């Protein structure tokens, strides 16, 4: 058996978005990811994957689960196999010895990794026999030890060097692995020739591809493996596997643009750097990085191209920037790349510059102000208009609030005025947000005679798509909750607790004995959460109850929370409010077991929530006084 503790740890280390995306390409939709459901046939996507809840749900067929559940349901894996696969991705050892065989797909992937591994060994061996390649690396200041650590090799200057490695050069897998190119008239040749070879590892340390730098003046200067079943440049980061421990020790990860930069930095003691692979930073990259560290420093050249690349990285970082996570941007002096910089000025100078990295929030506002100086009314208006989509992209509540305050200050507007312009409300305003939706739905209902309460959760190809997408993506105010769907109080408590399972420890929660499935589910949920000793997450709790009698009640409550756009922040308030109402109701009905002082009031819960948000915001370095922007 695999201990539950390990399952909980595992689920907090893997990203379900990564896992699902490997099988079902996902598209970003608001805070979530969507695709057409792999479990039933449909034309418009109702399969939703939530990165915050680490849970997937199909609003069409009801399929749902965690990353483990997905591998089981979609990949047809057994529970132990699914756990094993995820553990390997996360670099964890499953505390268990025996393990049955794996699926065909995995074996095929193993075939390709066996090929890339053989190629890596070959290139490494060739380096020893190439004085020219060795001279090049020495000239760049690299020692043999660093070259060995990164497994650097050399692809000889010939058409078919790999023919000496593999028994059949005609083997199609060599092409699939991106090592051999089939040219005209079936003429096959090696992709990498006369290049310094940098093997690219996945999170398990397996070689999945290569980067090759030309030795002379040839073109292209840098050549990477193509997209293969193993390698996708949009999700892999060069050096991440080797840097993992150093990243943890340093409490930060530096992101540079080239593999030579990563190696040069490591040569000078900065061994917590990684590189994107000939592509700009993607949201997947950013998510991967934030799983390794709360502090990610993007390092760019100080020239116009560098600032442009930094801006793209910023745009991709904003949506995944959680409170407590900190993205910084550092710019090297014009004309220097990290390799030049660290060779000329050394580790200390580099780290000093890294420590002064501009927080994402500041970089965003500084750049926007440079483009739209708020020195006139028109300028301020242009600034707000330009900032609007970026602020809308933010999902972190504290960061959003702080950004709004800064922007209001810069634009010389009262904050609530700015919020109005940005389309946010300073005060909860009942009905405002629900109205357009309700209007849509009334129309829709008239036309279709669907059951109103369920209409929104179904994937229907009619014109109602907009009514499902737009308003439901937006977080609802707690005050609005319940008006839409009027779920039972118990169901409301289940939802809140699933979103914030840690809160089960902070008060006397009801364990109803009414005998309904929802009562039973809530009781079981409270008992498990209050009694567990490890950190609780939504996915961890759902996995614990997978295949239990309570699973369907819990999953549908969670899906309803998703559909209504209830965030974890709202859940805290909703829980305190719901608990208070529950006990009031119980008291009115003469229920004897009403607890006394220990029930947190709604105000108390709100205060705790605020404290927690402040705590998280303080650890994010992005809080600066407004005047610093003007100093730039
Ligand atoms: Zn489905």
Would you give an account of this structure?
This protein is an alpha+beta fold and 632 residues long. Helix content is 50%, strand content 11%. It is built from 27 helices and 16 strands. Helix 21 runs parallel beside helix 22. The protein is globular and about 90 Å long. The model is unreliable at 97-103, 424-486 and 618-632 (pLDDT under 50). Bound molecules: zinc ion. Zinc ion binds at residues 37, 39-40, 47, 58, 60-61, 63.
Secondary structure: elements and pairs:
Layout lengths: L3 H10 L2 H6 L5 E3 L2 E4 L11 E4 L4 E4 L5 E2 L1 H9 L3 H12 L13 H25 L2 H9 L4 H6 L3 E3 L16 H5 L3 E3 L5 E3 L4 E7 L5 E8 L7 E3 L15 H11 L2 E4 L2 H9 L5 E3 L7 H10 L2 E7 L2 H14 L8 E7 L5 H18 L2 E2 H12 L5 H17 L3 H15 L3 H8 L11 H15 L3 H4 L9 H9 L15 H11 L17 H15 L6 H7 L6 H13 L4 H21 L13 H18 L7 H5 L1
Helix pairs in contact: 1-23, 3-4, 10-13, 14-15, 15-16, 16-17, 21-22, 21-24, 21-25, 25-26
This protein binds zinc ion.
- The strand count comes to 16
Bound molecules: zinc ion
Rounded average pLDDT: 79
Shape: globular
Strand content: 5-15%
**Radius of gyration, Cα only, in angstroms?**
27 Å
Number of helices: 27
- Main beta-sheet annotation: 5 strands, antiparallel
With strands numbered from the N-terminus, the spatial order across the biggest sheet is 1-2-3-4-5
Multimerization status: single chain
End-to-end CA span: 58 Å
Uncertain stretches: 97-103, 424-486, 618-632
What's the helical proportion of residues? 40-55%
Structural class: alpha+beta
